[in-house]
Amino acid sequence: MTTSKKIASLIVGALISCAVNAQSPGQPVTPKQFFPSRILNVYSPDSVGWVVTSAGSNGISFGKRGSESGETYGAQVIIFEMPSTTGSEELLSFVKKRIATMNPPPRFQEINSKYQYIENRGYPCVNVQIDFDDTAAVTPTGKEQLKLQVISLYCRHPEQQQLGFFVAYSHRGKVTDDQIESAAQNFIAAINVPKN
Hints:
Number of helices: 4
């Protein structure tokens, strides 16, 4: 088996129990519902109203509607293949490129961003706060321009060095949510690597 096939096999098996234990998309979850796996311990956000929006071999996503028309919240945990990096600057560069690929212009217009390399978990990570204008957000009434706020953490897995993971919490709406920081940090802090 080639190295890339071994990595793909690891990724496919990484969060399989998350996918198996999750209800089907659209089903509600309880606050801080636990989704264990061999690679990461995952919990749903710690408030009511969330549903599973997708679950697969590489991660799980949750969502809920806000009180305003077209307003939504999202939370996700995704595992991905991660190339070798040397030092904090190279990791920061990798994360910036990945985010740019996932949120390409002209649809996503970056308003502001902040990237910070950290090691307070005991392994290399990058904290990211970024705001976009989403010029073609899909809503029940059609496409419209909305604000997208994303608070996330990108890390190299401490035991599976060829894997990375990101944990993200987002808000999309006509105006920004000034209260997002606390909920986002609570969700991100709960996601952890299982202790052997």
